[in-house]
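Second attempt. The first submission of Outer membrane protein assembly factor BamE had a stray character pasted in from the spreadsheet, which I only caught after the job came back as garbage. Lesson logged: always re-copy from the clean sequence file. Corrected sequence (169 aa) follows.
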Amino acid sequence: MNVPTKIAILLSAALLSTACNPILRTHGYVPTAELPQEVNPDTDTKSSVLARLGNPSVKSTFDEDIDDDVWYYITSVRQRYAYLRPQIEDRTITAIHFNPDGQVEKVAEYGLEDGVPVNYVDRTTPTRGRELSALEQIFGTIGRLPTDRLTGANSPTGGGGGAGQTGGR
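This time the job returned cleanly.
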């Protein structure tokens, strides 16, 4: 084999081997210096958590005066091969629960194995009558409209609907 053929084979092998490598993308909260799991329930408050970790990914939907005030820090890693649908490789959800005074009560961590798939119910509301095809909808009104209303031939005011008439002669 000559040198250009060897180089072409090596380049082809390198391109084929890189096509099979997954592309990893991180979504959501990306911890920098401190991890959300390092929050201490004995000493940390809302302001200290906010200063150290930044804004949470999601806050609980209840007001602050309700006992169930939770901040969620969510990190997700997706893996994608070429043209295939991305798959979630790893997910970490850190839930920080606060008491009504703003003190951290507990820190809970959930992973991908803790998730529960949700199946949506695909129900439709039945309607009365029958379904019309596209052609029936397009051509269904032909012959149904009264032509005397369109032309105004039988109306007492003529074709214009009384627009040009005055009230008293």
